[in-house]
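#random but structural
TW: two for the price of one
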Amino acid sequence: MHVHCVPCWRRGQWWNDLEVYLVVDGVDTCKVGYLSKEFCGEAAYLDNKYIRVDDVFTENDDDVDRRRKFYQCYGFALGTILSN
């Protein structure tokens, strides 16, 4: 995954949204989501970084907390930030 910082107008002021794109064979293919609001303060650091997905939560998980997180966030994954 590849992170891009994009400015957006929300609630009367400018914010930095962090869009996440799927990378296939070294090419950004499609936007798959956004990093959560907690990472907006880290936008300058995370811009143009790559993320390796380590775990994906699904609606079929046996763990109730993992399923709850999946439904609460409309999908959820854990990853590791890689240097570029």
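TW: number two ↓
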Amino acid sequence: MSNRAESDGKRVEDYWTFGDAIEKEIERCAAISFASHQVNELSRNGVFRSWRCAMPGSWHLAFTITTIPNCLILTGDVGDLIVERHYDMLPWCRGSCRSTGYFAEKVPNNILTTEFNWEFAEAWRRTELQNEDINDEYRCFLEDFDINDESTEAHLYRELSGYVDELPSFRVWTRRFLWCREAIRWFVTHHDEPVVLEPN
């Protein structure tokens, strides 16, 4: 589709590909940013382990990975994230962090993984206007409906509820969550753990 919305000075695809564009941008930036990082083990006592990931002699975009039973904790310049699932989290992360949605399900609810994005809502409005099957009243509403950086999620849903039976989601993965996931992905591909640890 040719319909586009502005995001951070770049043109991004329509509503259906908006979130993917953000993920790909973070993935590309993380690959560049972590290219010179090295893994240094800080401690190890069974499943209680910790590693520092950074460029030699620099703290820029450095992060620490810590594991405890059933939990992996990431802290550092890219953000903070906790993921809970298995006793030894490293083998699980190795495969599961490829799926953003599944990975996000294992983050405790008090850590935001998604956020309202007005640019995403505007991309949806423009995409919706491309639909030739909408009625005139709804089309006029969409043409006049102003979505901008002061728009709130509640306001949009309240206004749309009179026209749309199934309200779309205007939430995208937070950039912080995506950076943290990329840091974990980088770590599990650059660190080989010899043994999967099981509870006694």
